[in-house]
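This follows on from our talk about sequence and fold. I would like you to pick a protein and set down its sequence and fold. Go ahead and set the record down below:
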Amino acid sequence: MDPTVVFGLAGAFSMSAAIAASKLLKLPAEEQPAWARGTRGNKRVLIAGNLCALVLVAAMVFGVTHLAWWIPVLCLFITFPVVHVIILEPLLGLARALIVGALGALMGAVLIGLFW
């Protein structure tokens, strides 16, 4: 598989999940979904966001080693946040964006491991 596709999928989904987790944690308790309320729910969201951030770091290292250095940098600051803000968050909402992003980040981590 092309390194650009592996990097793009892993990076976009992991960035989306990390942003969604951050936004979910900042919501008031009344606006959070039932599974994210309370101390245990906040811990789940925090752990999911941190794991997706680690996958994002792995995707960035993969991108820098397999692509030109400026492609991952550009994607980190422009493309990946735009994918979340314009596509995934309005389409799915924060809770579903976190779940879909975390599952996509998990698949991206597997792809990074396979094609490194």
The chain has a mean pLDDT of 94. Residues 3-115 form one domain. The chain has four helices and no strands. The first helix runs from residue 3 to 26.
